[in-house]
Amino acid sequence: MPTIGTWLADQGARVDALSAGLGHTLNRAVPPRLRRIVEKMQTGRQHHYGQVAAIGFLGATILYGLIAGGHMLTLLDRTVAAAFFGIQEIRIGGEIETPESAVVDQLDIRGGSLLGFDASDARERLIALPWVKDADIRKFYPNRLDITLTERTPFALWQNDEVISIIDRAGVVIGPYKDVRFAALPFVVGKGADSRADGFMTMVQRHPFLAERMRTAVLVSERRWDLVTKNGITVQLPESGVDEAIDRLKALQDKDDVLSREIVTIDLRLKDRIRIGLADNMAETVIKENESVIRRLAKAGGEI
Known about the structure:
alpha/beta, disordered N terminus, single chain, 304 residues
């Protein structure tokens, strides 16, 4: 049966091992004066009382070092984690564009316990991810976290200078355009077009004949829009009264099918007229037709 002396000798050996293990960390955390006291007490360890005192004082010194170094809460958290509430399972839902590895990294668990895990801080870190609009984090004791993400819905492609980004309906930039899966999104161009794209697209949808032909919308000087059709016609819209201007275009489209002709621009900025810019080949054809009419009239003696 072990004697008190044997036990104390064993504890003394453990003190040596613990001191060696703490090494440089303890030396930084404990003031030099306390270290000298411990060393003196350890030199008298051949006496049982000296051994007990050295063990007790070393324990207090280690505790002091942990508190002074700000490691006490971390130690307690990891102790509790190991014993009872360590996070062992993470369930993630709602992720489509966000990798699960990115979610786990943002949680910043580091082997902590469910008790010490700050869900509010973790939620803020998750919302900082490009696609994440909101996140719900729930703890299920003793060892499970459930994460439910709400991701942003891509609404349009926005070009500002030379950079093309994916934006949501609120105009928030999700990230750079790199994936052809999003090539069919509406394309808006210009400074300020990101925040005004939703309102403009809502207005265009009220005019299906134009919405189905639209390829690009360009915000000009942050005041008014130009709409470019899929066949390359630029429809110049006014700064105000846009719906009325498009109604005038609809009447012209129903009568002459102008959006299918070889023209370059349709200017709707004036309330009392529509100006049409012809393509070069179309302009040449019109000029030749006019010249032919002029010649016929001249031969017939008609007035021009």
